[in-house]
Design a protein that fits this description.
The complex is a heterodimer of chains A (509) and B (233). With 509 residues, chain A is of the alpha/beta class. Helices cover 28% and strands 19% of the residues of chain A. Chain A has 3 domains: 59 residues, no CATH class; 79 residues, Alpha-Beta Plaits (2-Layer Sandwich); 254 residues, Rossmann fold (3-Layer(aba) Sandwich). In chain A, the strands form 4 sheets. In chain A, strands 3, 4, 5, 6, 7, 11, 12 and 14 form an 8-stranded antiparallel sheet that branches. Classes of the chains: A alpha/beta (509), B alpha+beta (233).
Chain lengths: 509, 233
């Protein structure tokens, strides 16, 4: 029972013993407290519960109607400089032209997220060194990416501030509406038949002087069923951290009720970078790779190598992934952006999804994130309709950042990451779309070129969920195993569902 | 034994017993209150967007000399104790600096009833249109502040739901000891910044509030993105 949001049960219990005495006792306390010497207003602040403090405020304050202290020379209230900045922000046409906000130094791409370095440092205690690791890794990765990927496109921002390929947009049409592409200003760069998605995909470029959004609207108006959007860009969701000795996938998965009898017939689709097929952990795995990079060449394959090893890796000695023996279909979609970061276009993602379906993938793993995109949403919806779950990382943009996609689509399993201490990864996105939690801090995985290292990010939590989703679906025969997995999840954080951990730690038992 | 104490207390002083019982029951019934967060640590480029249009971007600095930039490009310095008034600023109409006496950091790590008192000496100039800074009148003022930490609570703002702790700061008159202004900053350790700020100006009766809409990493904090976010508010 609460009064004004404050508990009154204690008062009721005390008053049961001697009701009138309880009231008198309270008044006694009030009188005693009012003689305290606490600095402050006529409303004395004393060390009593808020309920009594509230009573004091109401009963004791008789100064609110007095004039303000504007004439006191030592405490001027007019034009308090505290809010000067806020006031100026709301104005336009200031005399002092401070200029616009600086563009991010890296050209808008943000910090590279390919930062996988071994580190024995505490993530929380050594944020400065973490940044240094990022710089060293960034330089190395940019060099690798520059060598691997030829810059063949420019980047731009759409009206919402999301990254896109400059001057391009994508169209999904039924075949019989393809003549609409003869509209003025439209140049068809590429056309693809998406057999599994029952649609045709067109990449359109426009003249520099044309307004992409106007053309998009015109096209959408001409063909009501057309799906039109920018060719958005997506990034892998890994970052740098190092706390303690990283845990191998099977060890990380113990709290998840894994390993378990994995049906070897499970087929998993991995949409990511390419992989190092010569790595000992992957050399003998049942892996099929297809390249979907259109702009330039494929980027570095570190991210995909790590994810693939978590899924199906087995070097026969020290390392074993979660689903050894399962077939893995790898769609390579990442290329190097002009700024050096790895990016994947919406076009490549849609095509990769189509291919994965055609290969019979039982679940798709997308350890990447970016903006909402109409074509991507369409492809996901069609895929889920066919009973193929899609598992995606929520992203590493921070707990108060807007949702990232495709994880934020309701049809997608959105995965966040925790560390060995069951604390949520501090950079993980949060929100009402979070579904499940899995290990994603300091996970041991294969490094392209050889060896193993520690990886952190919601990217690396995603394969844990992908495997369990695929296995659960295969066993249960359910079209969508999500309700079953929700019931089986180990609740974390606040009781019940919460926006940090979702339904909790995914569990197969 | 407890029964005997109970009987004895009832006989000796019903008033005293009732008061003590009341306080004891309150203490027992209160939830355990542990630490809810240390002082924030910011990453360069992180941009905080609020529903009243305020945009704060951390651009660098360390300790209690942190450099921030507003949406319009104004730079200012602020203490890591964000509830302390801005330490230095420059706009087209005013410029100034503040010196803090006392230790505002005593509220960290946040625990209920942890307090800090400090005074702020402000030296500033305000100029009118066409006036040079040299002609601007120099002003100096002293403000007294007292801050205290509240209880942790789950707070919902547009950016999400976060465990937060209120830091209630009151500025009061040094002569009349009257509260002139109250600022309540709801700090969320997970976000590493305040997610709501409530303001009451007792002199004017004005209330103001701002809520966090998004905290963007550098990569996402471009003007178009910020504009798109604020368009909903």
């Amino acid at each position: 029972m609460r009064l004004l949001g404050l508990p009154i049960q204690p008062f009721l219990r005390a008053s049961n013993a001697a009701p009138w005495a309880a009231v008198a006792g309270m008044l006694s306390l009030l009188l005693a407290a009012s003689s305290s010497h606490a600095l402050g207003p006529s409303v004395n602040v004393i060390r009593v519960p808020d309920a009594i403090n509230l009573v004091l405020l109401v009963a004791g304050d008789d100064d609110l109607d007095e004039p303000p202290d504007v004439d006191e020379p030592d405490t001027p209230d007019i034009e308090d400089p505290i809010d000067e900045v806020d006031i100026v922000e709301d104005e336009t046409g200031d005399i002092d032209e401070a200029g616009d906000l600086d563009e991010p130094e890296d050209g808008g791409e943000g910090e590279p997220e390919e930062g996988e370095e071994e580190s024995g440092e505490s993530e929380e205690e050594n944020e400065g060194s973490e940044t240094e690791d990022d710089d060293e890794t960034e330089e190395a990765e940019q060099t690798a990416q520059g060598e691997a990927g030829v810059n063949a496109f420019d980047q731009d921002f759409d009206d919402e501030g999301y990254l896109t390929v400059s001057g391009e947009f994508l169209v999904l049409l039924d075949d019989d509406a393809s003549d609409l592409l003869n509209l003025d200003g439209i140049i068809v760069e590429e056309a693809y038949a998406l057999n599994s998605l029952d649609a045709s995909l067109y990449r359109i470029s426009v003249d520099e002087d044309d307004d992409v959004s106007e053309i998009a609207i015109a096209l959408a108006d001409a063909a009501g069923d057309a799906v039109v959007d920018y060719n958005h860009l997506y990034e892998p969701e890994s970052s740098t951290a190092g706390v303690v000795t990283p845990c191998p996938p099977l060890e990380c998965a113990i709290p998840l009720g894994w390993p378990n009898d994995t049906p070897s017939a499970v087929r998993i689709g991995l949409i990511d970078t390419g992989i190092d097929e010569t790595h000992p952990a992957l050399a003998n795995a049942n892996i099929h790779v297809e390249d979907f990079v259109q702009h330039g060449q494929a980027g570095s394959n570190g991210h995909g190598t790590a994810i693939a090893s978590i899924l199906v890796g087995d070097d026969g000695e020290i390392f074993q992934g979660l689903a050894v023996g399962a077939e893995l279909y790898v769609a390579s979609v990442f290329t190097a952006a002009p700024s050096g970061e790895l990016v994947a276009t919406a076009e490549s993602l849609v095509r990769a999804i189509d291919w994965s379906l055609s290969e019979g993938a039982g679940a798709l793993n997308l350890s990447l994130a970016g903006p909402p995109n109409e074509l991507l949403e369409f492809a996901i919806a069609r895929t889920v309709e066919r009973g193929v779950p899609i598992v995606a990382a929520v992203g590493n943009a921070g707990p108060a950042a807007p949702p990232l996609y495709p994880a934020a689509y309701p049809a997608v399993y959105a995965v966040t990451a925790i560390g060995p201490d069951l604390m949520v990864y501090r950079r993980a996105n949060r929100g009402a779309h979070v579904d499940f939690t899995a290990p994603g801090v300091d996970v041991l995985a294969a490094a392209a070129g050889g060896g193993y290292r520690s990886y952190t990010g919601t990217s690396f939590a995603t394969p844990f969920v992908s495997v369990i989703v695929a296995a659960t679906k295969d066993r249960s025969g359910a079209h969508d195993p999500r309700p079953l997995l929700r019931r089986q999840a180990i609740d974390l954080g606040r009781e019940g569902y919460d926006q940090t951990f979702g339904y909790g730690l995914i569990n197969i038992e | 034994m407890m029964t005997r104490i109970y009987s004895a207390a009832r006989q000796i002083s019903p008033f005293l017993f009732a008061g003590l019982a009341f306080l004891a029951a309150i203490a027992i019934d209160n939830e355990a209150f542990g630490q809810t967060g240390n002082a924030p640590s910011y990453e360069a480029g992180t941009t905080f967007v609020f529903d009243n249009g305020t945009v704060e971007r951390f651009t660098g600095g360390a300790g209690n000399e942190l450099l921030w930039r507003s949406r319009s490009g104004r730079e200012y310095t602020r203490s890591r104790d964000f509830f302390v008034p801005i330490l230095s600023w420059r706009t087209s109409r005013s410029q100034g600096a503040r010196v803090v006496n006392g230790d505002p950091s005593k509220v960290w790590p946040l625990e209920q009833r942890r307090r800090a008192r400090f005074s702020v000496v402000t030296t500033s100039r305000s100029r009118g249109a066409g006036e040079d800074w040299d002609e601007a009148e120099l002003n100096r003022s002293v403000a007294l502040w007292r801050c205290r930490a509240g209880r942790p609570q789950l707070l919902a703002v547009p950016a999400g739901e976060f465990e937060s702790t209120a830091i209630v700061c009151e500025r009061y008159s040094s002569s009349s000891m009257r509260v002139l202004r109250r600022l309540t900053w709801y700090y969320a350790p997970a976000v590493g910044h305040y997610i709501r700020r409530e303001e009451i100006n007792y002199s004017t009766g004005e209330h103001a509030e701002r809520n966090l809409v998004a905290a963007l990493p550098l990569a996402q904090a471009n003007d178009a993105r910020i504009d798109a976010i604020l368009a909903n508010y």
